[in-house]
Hints:
Elements: H1 2-12, E1 43-53, E2 56-65, E3 70-72, E4 86-89, E5 95-104, E6 108-113, E7 118-124, E8 126-135, E9 142-148, E10 150-151, E11 160-166, E12 173-176, E13 187-189, H2 216-234, H3 242-253, H4 257-277, H5 280-288, H6 292-298, H7 300-317, H8 327-339, H9 342-356, H10 358-372, H11 378-402, H12 415-443, H13 450-468, H14 485-501, E14 540-541, H15 544-554, E15 557-563, H16 568-577, H17 581-589, E16 591-597, E17 610-613, E18 619-622, H18 625-637, E19 644-648, H19 665-687
Parallel strand pairs: 13-17, 14-16, 15-16
Antiparallel strand pairs: 1-2, 2-8, 3-7, 3-10, 4-9, 5-8, 6-7, 9-11, 11-12, 15-19, 17-18
Amino acid sequence: MRKTIGVVGVLAVALAVLLSRCGGGAVVADPTAIKVDPANDKVAWSVRAVSTGGVSYDLIWHAVIDDGWSVYSVEDFGEMGPLPSRFEFDTLGHISIQPGLDEKSEHTIQGHDAVFGMEVKKFKHDVDFVNHFGTSAPEFPVTGQFEYMTCNDEMCLPPSLIFWRVVPDSGTFQLSLVPFDLSGIAAKTCADGTYKLASADLDSPVVPGEKERGSNGSLLVIFFLGFIGGLVALLTPCVFPMIPLTVSFFTKGSTDKRKGLMNALLYGAFIFLIYAAFSIPFHLLGSVNPQIFNEISTNPWLNIFFFVIFIVFAISFLGYFEITLPSSWVNKMDSNASKFGGGLGIFFMALTLALVSFSCTGPILGSLLAGALSSDGGAWQLTMGLSGFGLALALPFALFAMFPGWLNNLPRSGGWLDTVKKTLGFVELALAVKFFSNADLVMNWGLLKREVFIGLWIVIGIGLVLYLIGRLLLPHDVKGASIGKGRWTTAVLVLAFVVYLIPGLTNTPWRNLKLLSGFPPPLFYSLYEHKNECPEGVTCYHTLAEGLEVAKRDNRMVMIDFTGWACVNCRKMEETVWVEPVIHSVLRDEVVLVSLYVDDKRELDKEDQHVYIACNGQKSFIKTIGDQWSTLQTETFAQASQPLYVLLSPDGTLLTDPVGYTPDVDEYATFFQRGLSGMQKLKGVAAK
């Protein structure tokens, strides 16, 4: 509708006469600015990318405007107003656009516009429009388009659409009236079969099997783990003392007992909703890019960031300092709770609790956020985990309001709350090691091999034991204080766990710590292994082309193992299912194993990096080894979670439906049997 108004406006505003002329002065000289259509354009443009540090850039559209003409702001003026300026990037995988756009000009005019009869914001003489973006490949072009309208005191010109192309490294730019092709970047498309295997038809496998099952089971597990995290948070000094105070406020502060009960229930419901709502933005991210959670969970620098954050959380929990949100936030929510009555006031009370308790709940929530942001389940995992967490926090307020007599049975606040908090500090240290391990694995740095990882966990466990038995004093601890039964019991359990870890330091058959499968690095990422990157001693390949070549030579089926260095369920399958004789024999004798690590962040050679145009038209930048395999998985097999196991014939025909995480050995063996049956069926067809 707006574009129609803009075109019609060319005729309409040609009849309008502005009563007074706004602005004046000479055009600022800019030798780099050009007019794409010199005969008709009233604005000369230049585009440049300016580094703001690291991989971040400002993209600046600089406009030099002819005397007497104006360019409008990016603000939306409504259907009857002028067309706002619009600046867009093409979606390429090597760039990330940051929200917001800045407008900088010394000749800004904001006020009544007689042409359109409304308040507008526009610019004369010159203006910079600044967008912020990041790029993992500054030597490659960034492209897009922008649209703008120019008017003078008597008329408006039709909106101009200009396509742009800029190379951040060199600063060179091009402008055009037609879209730029992908010149300068090698390109592959859905049609060439690189990532879309025509022979692998998901709808017609040779031997159909069960379709990939949903993740309802894992979602329930995530909900339960979130609930446990919420229960732990209840036992911290920031939350536990609030329970009797808040419940008493509702039950005794209300003139009507029933009303007090309903208010307490509403308070609990708001707590639940506040935490569940934290996951909403991640659903929006997932709808834009289904691989976003895999990219987030395996990004090495994000994992390093989590590592640092968890170290900070741990130091805070150990008592060396307190993490709190700005007091102005808390005070604002508290004043709103007092200001507004009814349901709105109760909502602000719930929000105040969330802010006040952040120093204790923040690290636990951080663990939940970081753990749930994986490719397997994505935003729904996060929603379930946060919902479980919120439910655990909300339940006590509702239950104790319904049964206030139970308050008398609550243990008194005391030193045990500090013990819980400091114990969590050691847990945070262990989680920090895990996040550093994720970064080390996907980048193949080799800094945190399996034995080093387990050794650090042993040291942390010993530190926790020494703290629990009073041999290691932390801030606010009293030397010689009595140690209760709870601390002694916990110390014994932690010591037993440490003893369980010790064989993991050796190169013996007992080093496979099955209870921890997926948390330490894989068995082959070891100080004792120097060349092998194949799980459980099975011969494997790391490109599909190589695997298919071997399969044709040996007349065996191929199993594509879409896996990840940071994939917990992948390690569980390798260390608990693949080791079973009935499975291991098939992997060794019947299958050509092709393990494709979708989170391998090692960069391809520059000449091998390229843009891929998917079947749905979406463009992605293939820069790393993992980019290739994640694209192959989503394009051909329409899934983005790992592990995913696919059985193909030597010519690439899909033998049976792919399966994901399958901890049941018999079920996994049946999957292989369907594949072998498919091979026999194809041989029979070929014989005829």
